Amino acid sequence: MNFQHTEDRRMLADSLNRFLADHNGIEARHHHAESPLGYSRTLYAGLAELGAIGALFPESHGGFGGAGFDVSVVFECLGRHLVVEPLLGALLVGRGLIEAGTPVQRAELAGLISGELTAAWAHDEPGSHYELNRVSTTATRNAQGWRLQGAKSVVPLGDSADLLLVSARTAGGPLDAEGISLFLVPGTAAGLERRGHGRIDGGRAAQLSLNAVQLGADALLGTAGQGGALLQRLNGYALLALASESLGAMDVAKDQTLEYLRTRKQFGVPIGSFQALQHRMADLLLEVEQARSAVINAAAAVDEPESLRREKALCAAKFSVGRIGTLVAEESIQLHGGIGMTWELPLSHYAKRLVMIDHQFGDEDHHLARFIALTQAEADAPADAEV
Q1: How far apart are CA 255 and CA 252, in angstroms?
Q2: What are the Acyl-CoA dehydrogenase/oxidase C-terminal domain coordinates in residue numbering (predicted)?
């Protein structure tokens, strides 16, 4: 297998890294993340102009990429620079429009790709604990269309998004796989209450209350009660994006730690000359390369039709970056010493982001258990079944 990116992807990565190095240095990033908006509209527009958002979608829908490796390249660059702009929301909502949207709904893609429209993914609920099927928010059909009632929690940049993709139950019980529907909700919808708050790793999130939010019939994405499969597919793209972002952040933390070992001196020699520290750094490098392999595998699998192989590859990648990202954060701080915990050193912010990525869309324990369950289902499948 050829693990080299195409020339177009390498050029995109180079352009993004140069642009972000110039416009999203650590101090600028802190300023954007701590602002009332939680990100920079100017930087987001610049990323859109460079094609970072367009690369997430196929040419047939106004983009110029859309493959798993395109998604991976973009989010790895974002991870290298701790970008807080809402590209994950654009990816998930845009993919939802492509997979299940009507021609009228898909018209929103142009605004997403240009950066003029921001979007957020609103699925998690208080107490849902990573379970995709645990949806308590309800949608009731009426003469005007649909009425939504419920709450969503920790929606990234949900307090400023122009468009929200909200999951709600139109049939069945809170844990049923069937009966879930997806709705496009304008950020200005009457009855939608958004309470924004800061995140520990920078940027903002929001708690959403949907109090009898009235939507038209055209707000439904796909078929009523059949949103579970789309939910699973979009979740796969989120896992790939976060795994790639984590890999980019790991690479920077690793490089900064290696540079520190080469320059920090004790007893008149660089501390990197001490064999015990060399062994720890070598182990860290091997772990990062293992994570890279898992991300490559996930990027190759995400475009496949629904299958156990696809889900296993994505679970394995998220489990790997969860475990290894936490290890990189801990070891990098240990090898730096006390300075590694300080606000002024960029490493501490990379460490926070690496740890928090583990808790988005399922932590390592969740994905290990799911990988085991998928492996068992694969073993139990008939020999001639498509898995």
Answers
A1: 5
A2: 240-353
